[in-house]
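Class, study these two lines:
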Amino acid sequence: MADHAAWAVAYARQARADFETYDQLRDWPIPECHKLQFLQMACEKLVKSHLRANKGNLADLQKSHAFVAKSLPVVLRRQAVLVGLGEGAIRNANHFAKCLSAEIEWPSPSVTREGRRPDNCEYPWESGDSQLQVPIDWSFTATRLPLGPSARTFLNLTLGAINRLVV
């Protein structure tokens, strides 16, 4: 059986492929749900790589998507310190990471927050007014967020953390 380090690298390699796909699709005129799905998957696998490198339970990591909002800001703050960002930039990037990571975790089909927010970037769902919603028609908050300097810092830190974990 593969050890923690091998699993961490495997998750990081897949995270990098997902991130690079997101980066390529960002400016394409395709549905937001497809772009967001790759960013969501990249961030999720980055977090799983980090957790597995720190001996996180593999069975737990393989059966849940609910790791991003809690762990991504921690991973990115660590990366910010490693690359020498100033405290102000770290604070801004960390605040952005917390906001965006919650938005990234929401669109996972398994994370519905007790039915309060069923939107996801992969499967249709029924809204509170019993209307059927389709991801390709939905406007996701997270795809509108990566626009300013904090967003660029977030994306750079995300890619940097992924590359650091690939080894």
Observations:
- Helices lie at 4-25, 32-53, 58-63, 68-82, 87-105, 141-144, 149-166.
- The chain has seven helices and two strands.
- The chain has a mean pLDDT of 78.
- The chain has one domain: 4-166.
